[in-house]
């Protein structure tokens, strides 16, 4: 092996064993241990692995690199051969195929790096190997002209093989000889070859080399263009056969033109949001598809165009423009009803599309030649003529006159032309085809358009020459259409020849839209909001910043094959630098660069099955598109339409607080437009809690809502000086106004990103608490966000009397951002104070059964427990181990951040969750929430990032001595199947099984991990996955325990509301009855008093607990558990009854079948016996007849003989008569 070959093989080995591929190469690094797989050597005759491969390479075992290649491929072939068809190790086949593909890529890359610059040097390097191969190219040449003796073979093809070191092989005399000269350039995208036929004409071939081929080597020559020129196209261009070869040569598609096409498409979708929704997807309505395909030859939509752009399926810009125009021409061609509503939509979209094509493509081309066919300058007038003709109505039947001229003739005749039609009509034409040709730029002048329009009428008259009813019908419509058409066409021709037409033609060539350059501040705002986006993995429940992976350029040292998949890298830092340099001329330029980041992510990670990165790229791309379109829509509207007022927050503390709605409840006005002068800042100050009035200080130079009206009523003149408006606090303050006011009262608040340490974790704890279903969203179920006396002013005095230290969530957040708290315990104490205050205030109302007090008391009880669980979970990195601090549980109003409290909280959640019964659903039904939580727990272990570790536990093949050590073997697949078969009764059972998987692995591999590397890897993986499992269990405990508590309280609240509603209805009925019967009021009251309040009756035996039990005496958990048990019992009984019914039915069916078989057999046997009986009777009769004949003949002979001898015969008689034979009756004759 030469040094160059040795270097190639070493680079391939290093690439395959690198850490970048540790997620797929870990099974191939070491030899397979036959002790774990006893049948391995029976299937694999020659084992191989990457370590042995590297050792053989260094020892000089391989004479050529081909031998090295064979052994390397053997590794993965062995894996496929052994694991194929094995359910427990089927994933190994996928890993082997990925490694095989990686080996092929690395081999080609290594050979490309060692390839000399010229093709001859490449041949020299290749000839150093033991197997010498000569590069050859096969060409199939279609002969355009042949001699007379070979004219019968004109449709055939000739195959010529040319080799780089020898002349072409001799061929038959009638085959054109071809000489091929190959040349290559370094770093060239294509290789050029020259072909010289025998006629002497030289033809150049352009052969695409492809991404993975070494430089200088031509890919398949069969992909080259045809050697003979194509036949000439007809002089009448059609919409489906537009000659675009010239445009492909002038402006082939490249990265720059592809980017401009993408910008055109995105600009169209953004500017025509409501109109483009009709063209985003193919026509798929079952009622329309058949008719649509019959009328439209080339369907197209914007989604298909985007897909073709991404897949590089457009050879030139002209092909892209043709497809884009087809979208709108197809719509006009199909929707041909009178005054169709799609026409204005199509015209508007097409106008915008043409303007964008001119701006992004035609305007930026350096050459003067057009890169795509341009539309006729008066195409809008031509379309209007077609629309006018489409709307013509027959005066006799009120139908469309042009109905039979809107589509090709074969559409109305079952898909083929009528008999003799093409003999009479040389060039078929219809209005739909004219529209298609017009919008796809097949007309050079209005004269051609007019000629085609008139041709429609001429064809009709040319075909219908016979005198019959059908001809009269069609000719009458053709004449009526001609009467409407001629004046319009004459007007168009006069316009084309006039000065106005010339001016319109010149204006069409110079027309170009204007797009405003985006401001730097605007683009930075979009980038800032995009960077603030968070992404949560649904399976792993891991939250991360969505743009963290896209900030900097991809390091090709870590990802050496990145440039093989991505041609134009992009990242957010590059976008930031281009924003600073003001390199973005249009918003579409900025949108394309940012979208390119996420497209590159999908393009690179999709072939590698990196599901997490692909999902992250798609999510971030969708978020950016939504954010960009929203911002651009507001920018284009001038910011005049804002749905929600801008309130001061930590992110925009300098923004003005506009209060459009007075505290008293007036309607909030719209934001000021650009022409109006905006009002100045309005601030609301909250006085101390003990104040009895709320003072609203409004400093403004404009108009206050209701200001003039109030001034007129008081008789005073409205002054422009600042004034203080004293507002009655009996009216509640809107919550968003109160939140903004509280935040303003804490100046100097920091941004959330400026926090660190315990403050940052406390902010995370608060944000997660605010996501609770009871206190999240704009209208929470329970209000803890602002002080109670602001939202409920009617209880202000009572609240202040009971609560000495008020606290709310907004105040706690503002204090945290201002830096008031000294440690995390102080912040958590304030959070607990919010709910403990609610308990204190609502305790009396709860005891007497007041509905709102009961609701808030029970909700605060649960939120106190949830806050304690959540704080100890989120802030666990700041917990201390203190034995002196008190340990609390249940509904504690205070707790310390210590390890002991976290252990108690976890024990509480485990008792709640692990004993929760799983609500089992029927097969095919939607899973219950408890089953969904169990599914999430299972899937969290099989995340893409952990597949390397989970390989040992998904579906294990246990060694022979495994059951001797492990009493209960179990795997992930077993748990999944058991869950799907509804064999788990509680959540704790599946948690115990999942924990058992890793405890078994630790117990078994701990013995031999010091001597076995595989056991050590399995042991480490078990530790890693055990930690992952506990993290997933912690998340599940928090969410499930919260849900169980919420459902319990919601059920109690619902029962209470229903009881209150029933009592209200009873009171209403009672009042109505008293109103209708005023004289019987006393009697009714007496009757109500007489009724017994209890139901105990006298009995002749002692029964002290005869009264009915209260329905609410049974706890929610017990009632739910009993209901589930009853339901499961009913399900089992149903299944049992079903099985019994099925067995009875099968038994009855079997008896009926046996009876039918027995009856059929009896009939067959009776028939056979009857036939046999008849045969026997015939035989017996024949025998008796023959005996009688013989007896008669014998008697006559004896008598004759005796008479001849003069002798007399002797009569012999039997002394005892013979018994008569009786016939036996058949036993089956009755059947």
From TrEMBL:
The keyword Secreted does not apply. The keyword Signal does not apply. Keywords: Bromodomain. PROSITE patterns: BROMODOMAIN_1 (PS00633), BROMODOMAIN_2 (PS50014). Residues 142-203, 221-242, 663-682 are annotated as: Disordered. Residues 20-90, 271-342, 397-471, 550-612, 776-849, 960-1012 form the Bromo domain. The lineage of its organism: Eukaryota, Sar, Stramenopiles, Ochrophyta, Bacillariophyta. InterPro entries: Bromo_chromatin_reader, Bromodomain, Bromodomain-like_sf, Bromodomain_CS. This is Bromo domain-containing protein. Residues 144-155 have a biased composition (Low complexity). Pfam families: Bromodomain.
């Amino acid at each position: 092996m030469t040094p160059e070959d040795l270097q190639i093989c070493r680079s391939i080995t290093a690439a395959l064993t690198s850490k970048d591929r540790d997620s797929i190469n870990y099974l191939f690094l070491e030899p397979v241990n036959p002790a774990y797989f006893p049948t391995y050597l029976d299937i694999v005759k020659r084992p191989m692995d990457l370590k042995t491969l590297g050792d053989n390479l260094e020892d000089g075992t391989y004479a050529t690199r081909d031998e090295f290649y064979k052994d390397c491929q053997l590794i993965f072939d062995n894996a496929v051969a052994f694991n194929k068809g094995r359910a427990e190790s089927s994933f190994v086949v996928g890993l082997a195929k990925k490694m095989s593909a990686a080996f092929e890529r690395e081999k080609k890359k290594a050979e490309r790096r060692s390839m000399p610059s010229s093709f001859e040097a490449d041949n020299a390097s290749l000839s150093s190997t033991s197997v010498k191969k000569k590069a050859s190219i096969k060409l199939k040449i279609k002969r355009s002209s042949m001699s007379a003796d070979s004219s019968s073979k004109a449709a055939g093809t000739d195959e010529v093989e040319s080799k780089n070191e020898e002349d072409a092989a001799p061929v038959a005399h009638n085959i054109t000889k071809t000489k091929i000269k190959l040349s290559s350039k370094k770093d060239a995208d294509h290789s050029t070859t020259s072909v010289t036929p025998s006629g002497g004409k030289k033809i150049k071939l352009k052969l695409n080399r492809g991404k993975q081929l070494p430089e200088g080597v031509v890919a398949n020559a069969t992909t080259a263009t045809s050697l003979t020129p194509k036949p000439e196209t007809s002089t009448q261009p059609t919409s489906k056969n537009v000659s675009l070869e010239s445009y492909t040569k002038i402006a082939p598609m490249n990265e720059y033109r592809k980017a401009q096409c993408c910008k055109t498409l995105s600009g169209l979708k953004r500017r025509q949001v409501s109109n483009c929704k009709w063209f985003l997807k193919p026509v798929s309505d079952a009622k329309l598809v058949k008719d649509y395909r019959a009328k439209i030859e080339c369907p197209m939509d914007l989604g298909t165009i985007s897909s073709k752009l991404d897949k590089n399926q457009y050879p030139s810009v002209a092909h892209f423009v043709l497809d884009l125009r087809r979208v709108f021409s197809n719509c006009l061609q199909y929707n041909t009803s009178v005054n169709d509503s799609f026409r204005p939509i199509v015209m508007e979209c097409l106008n915008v599309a043409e303007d964008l094509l001119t701006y992004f493509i035609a305007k930026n081309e350096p050459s003067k030649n057009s890169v795509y066919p341009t539309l006729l300058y008066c195409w809008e007038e031509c379309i209007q003529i077609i629309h006018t003709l489409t709307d013509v109505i027959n005066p006799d039947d009120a139908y469309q006159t042009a109905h039979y001229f809107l589509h090709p003739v074969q559409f109305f005749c079952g898909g083929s032309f009528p008999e003799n039609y093409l003999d009479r009509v040389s060039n078929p034409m219809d209005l739909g085809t004219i529209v298609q040709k017009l919008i796809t730029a097949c007309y050079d002048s209005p004269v051609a358009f007019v000629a085609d329009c008139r041709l429609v009428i001429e064809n009709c008259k040319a075909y219908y020459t016979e005198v019959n009813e059908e001809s009269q019908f069609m000719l009458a419509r053709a004449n009526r259409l001609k009467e409407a058409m001629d004046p319009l066409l004459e007007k168009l021709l006069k316009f084309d020849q006039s000065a106005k037409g010339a001016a319109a033609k010149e204006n069409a060539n110079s027309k170009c839209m204007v797009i405003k350059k985006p401001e730097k501040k605007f683009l930075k705002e979009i980038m800032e909001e995009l960077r603030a986006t968070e992404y949560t993995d649904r399976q792993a429940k891991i939250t991360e910043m969505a743009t963290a992976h896209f900030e900097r350029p991809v390091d090709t040292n870590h990802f050496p094959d990145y440039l093989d998949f991505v041609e134009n890298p992009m990242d957010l830092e590059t976008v930031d630098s281009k924003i600073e340099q003001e390199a973005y001329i249009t918003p579409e330029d900025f949108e394309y660069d940012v979208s390119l980041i996420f497209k590159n992510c999908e393009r690179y990670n999709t072939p590698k099955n990196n599901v997490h990165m692909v999902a992250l790229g798609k999510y971030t791309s969708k978020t950016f598109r939504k954010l960009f379109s929203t911002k651009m829509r507001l920018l284009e509207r001038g910011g005049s339409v804002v749905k929600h007022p801008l309130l001061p927050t930590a992110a925009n503390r300098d923004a003005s607080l506009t209060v459009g709605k007075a505290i008293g409840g007036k309607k909030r006005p719209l934001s000021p437009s650009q022409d109006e002068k905006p009002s100045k800042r309005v601030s609301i100050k909250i006085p101390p809690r003990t104040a009895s009035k709320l003072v609203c200080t409004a400093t403004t130079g404009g108009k206050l809502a209701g200001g003039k009206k109030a001034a007129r009523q008081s008789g005073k003149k409205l002054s422009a000086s600042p004034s203080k408006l004293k507002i009655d606090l009996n009216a509640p303050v809107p919550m968003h106004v109160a939140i903004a006011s509280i935040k303003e009262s804490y100046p100097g608040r920091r941004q959330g990103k400026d926090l660190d340490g315990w403050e940052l974790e406390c902010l995370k704890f608060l944000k997660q608490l605010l996501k609770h279903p009871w206190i999240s969203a704009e209208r929470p179920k329970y209000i803890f966000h602002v002080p109670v006396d602001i939202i409920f002013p009617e209880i202000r005095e009572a609240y202040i009397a009971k609560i000495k230290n008020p606290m709310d969530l907004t105040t706690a957040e503002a204090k945290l951002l201002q830096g008031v708290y000294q440690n995390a315990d102080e912040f958590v104490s304030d959070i607990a104070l919010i709910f403990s205050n609610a308990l204190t205030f609502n305790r009396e109302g709860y005891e007497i059964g007041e509905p709102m007090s009961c609701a808030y008391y029970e909700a605060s009880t649960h939120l106190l427990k949830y806050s304690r669980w959540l704080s100890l979970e989120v802030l666990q990195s700041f917990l201390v181990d203190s034995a002196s601090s008190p340990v609390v549980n249940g509904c504690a109003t205070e707790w310390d951040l210590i390890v002991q409290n976290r252990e108690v909280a976890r024990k509480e959640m485990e008792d709640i969750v692990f004993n929760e019964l799983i609500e089992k659903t029927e097969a095919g039904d939607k899973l219950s929430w408890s089953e969904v939580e169990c599914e999430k727990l299972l899937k969290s272990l099989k995340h893409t990032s952990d597949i390397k570790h989970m390989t040992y536990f998904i579906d294990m093949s246990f060694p022979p001595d495994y059951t001797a050590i492990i009493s209960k073997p179990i795997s992930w697949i077993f748990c999944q199947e058991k869950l799907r078969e509804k064999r788990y009764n509680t959540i704790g059972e599946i948690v115990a099984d999942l924990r058992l998987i890793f405890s078994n692995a630790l117990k078994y591999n701990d013995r031999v991990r010091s001597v076995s590397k595989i056991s050590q890897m399995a042991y480490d993986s078990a530790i890693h996955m055990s930690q992952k499992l506990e993290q997933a269990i912690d998340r599940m405990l928090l969410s499930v325990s919260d849900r169980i508590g919420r459902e319990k309280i919601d059920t109690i609240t619902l029962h209470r509301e229903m009881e209150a509603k029933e009592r209200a209805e009873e009171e209403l009925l009672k009042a109505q009855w008293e109103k209708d019967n005023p004289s019987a009021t006393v009697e009714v009251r007496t009757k109500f008093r007489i009724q017994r309040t209890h139901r105990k009756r006298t009995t002749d035996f002692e029964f002290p607990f005869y009264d009915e039990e209260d329905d609410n005496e049974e706890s929610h958990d017990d009632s739910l558990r009993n209901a589930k048990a009853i339901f499961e019992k009913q399900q089992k009984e149903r299944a049992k009854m079903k099985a019994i019914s099925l067995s009875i039915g099968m038994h009855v069916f079997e008896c009926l079948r046996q009876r039918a078989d027995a009856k059929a057999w009896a009939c067959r046997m009776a028939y056979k016996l009857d036939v046999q009986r008849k045969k026997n009777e015939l035989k017996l009769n024949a025998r008796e007849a023959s005996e009688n004949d013989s007896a008669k003949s014998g008697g006559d002979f004896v008598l004759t003989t005796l008479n001849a001898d003069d002798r007399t015969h002797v009569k012999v008689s039997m002394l005892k008569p013979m018994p008569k034979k009786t016939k036996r009756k058949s036993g089956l004759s009755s059947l």
